[in-house]
User: Fold this.
Amino acid sequence: MLDLYSPGHSPIHKLSPGVKILAMMVGGTGLFLVENLGIVAVALAAVIALYKIAGLSATQVWNQIRPVLWILIFFLGLQWWLAGASVAVFVVLRLATLLLLAGLVTLTTRASDMIESLTSGLRFLRPLGVNPAKVGLAISLALRFIPVLAQITTEVREAQKARGMEHSIVAVAMPVAIRMLKMADDISDAIDARGYRP
Amino acid sequence: MIDIQNVTLAYADRVILRDISLELSERRIAIIGANGSGKSSFARLLNGLVMPTKGDVLVDGLNTRTHGKDVRQKVGFVFQNPDNQIVFPVVEEDLAFGMKNLKFSKEDIAQKTTDILSRYNMLDMREHPAHLLSGGQKQLLAISGVLVMEPTYVVLDEPTTLLDLRNKRRITHAINALEQTVILASHDLDLLTDFDRVIVFDDGRIAIDDVPSVAIPHYIKLMS
Amino acid sequence: MDTKSIVYIALFAALTAALALFPPISFAGLALPPITAQSLGVMLAGALAGSKRGGLALLLFVVLVAVGLPLLSGGRGGFGIFAGASGGFVLAWPISAFVIGWLLERAPQAGFVKMAAIIAFGGIVVMYAIGIPWMALVANLPLTKAVTIMLAYVPGDLVKVVLATFIARGVRRAYPTL
Assistant:
């Protein structure tokens, strides 16, 4: 399955997804409670150390930051102008630490494991009317649909290209939407035909 | 045997099937007819996906209205477009879906998955994402997903329409090798020459019901 | 919940994901930020699948992003999204879709303008009401500054509202059994 997982056998990889998510939430909330540049700097160093423990490279640390780099720089400048240099550095370091912490969970946990522990965790929501089996079915279906939709979109764009309309969002979206709704009706028949009882 | 008793099917004021009565007991039965002749709706009646507006459909004595679950296990259904039938992203997950609905054991599921995949030479695709399979392989997966549920009847709704000639042959070969009773709705007339019985639908009625050598020429004449 | 609802929920979650593949449209010369098609998925889910299905579809999408699937445009995903400046907007998507569906269910005969107004309310007002304070918190900005930044995105979002209204009306006509 396509995900952002980076295979490995470190202690962090082996932790259960639930534990990692909980630790991340506690850590993330904690970062918002402290207003101290020193503590944030220590936290950042600690998170980078965790990357090292997980056997991840400096490139992977950088990859977490790179997509949002321009936003960080923008905020750095804005804060500098609004509140001065030390606040600006503090805010941007805190943001970077949070991103790295979250990225660590994503890199060391398979999406399928995460989904599995999620659906099993949903057992506790049963009294609220949540059915874990149905959630599991919806997740699998969504993953199944993504490539199919991408393919339908490509086909429709080719067809519209022949009419010179491949850049018209409406001319592409309308047939795609209608085909996918037809597919949804058929697949829901197919699920019933294969003995599924909601 | 599937027993269709005085079945009428209508959506709102549009009548799809008009008072059809049939007994299906042959091993290879084909349903042919123009687009919109009602053959697809007829196929869907056989496993309770569609309920008749009037009349009843009995599968080995079980009414589709009251025994939906049992009927669906007895009558497997293969759709025209395998993309609309494959429910799960990975081949083995998809095969397991129907078996889990029938509460098969884990070991049983694993064994049947191996059996069916080796039958169609797809064993090395067990952990493949379904969307990377070829059109023919997808249709074989769709058929496999039905067969692992051990149905007595297999209904196929134009399973070869979207395929190229080579894959058409592959699927035809697979259909001919089925030990189950096969009810096939199709436009591919050359698939049907070995069948026991061909039923031609026209405008919601049965135009002819005979052996292929009689029914197919009649159908061709009807269409021209 | 019936099979069809589960399928629709999965479908609109997948649609929002697939829209990430659409190349962003840039309005060269107008100095506007590029429009990514993804929030179109939010509007369409609300307008076509309804409040409950649409809202759950986007909730499912958010969960899939959170568990690390790279489904946001540019191949982004993972928990980090929510720690970032745009995290609040993504979290607002399920609520936006729900609100659009809920309002449209109460105005089934809505004409083009009314429908567009409803989609704009859910897809812009509700979304910004959640996304902007989140951005202000994460980036430690005064609320007014965050509002100023987001004003630049309003024209693009208005274009999406019009597109979503066009598409939703067309699809509803072509697929009346929806």
Q: What stands out?
A: Chain B has a mean pLDDT of 91.
